[in-house]
Amino acid sequence: MDYIKFWIPIYREQFKKGDYDTKRAIKENFFKNTHLTLKQKEELWERIVSV
């Protein structure tokens, strides 16, 4: 899970600058492509969208 923490600032920056469709695509890809439990994904997603 440490490698995912590397990507959090990148995801956060893309999410912050994106429009509605971009934000939705980022979330879909994040949940589809990371090999973590659902709880871990949700915790990381909260860290991404919280500013």
Summarize the structure in words.
The protein is mainly α and 51 residues long. Helix content is 82%, strand content 0%. The protein contains three helices and no strands. Helix 1 crosses helix 3 (38-49). The chain starts with a helix and ends with a helix. The model has no long low-confidence stretch (mean pLDDT 89).
Calculate the mean pLDDT score and round it. 89
Distance between the termini: 21 Å
SSE order, one letter for each helix or strand = HHH
Low-confidence stretches: none
Based on CA atoms alone, the radius of gyration comes out at: 10 Å
Number of helices: 3
Q: Strand share of the residues?
A: under 5%
Structural class: mainly alpha
What's the layout of helices and strands?
Layout: H1 2-17, H2 20-33, H3 38-49
Write a brief caption for the model.
The protein has helices at 2-17, 20-33, 38-49. The protein has 51 residues and is mainly α.
Based on the model shown, name its key terms.
single chain, about 50 residues, mainly alpha
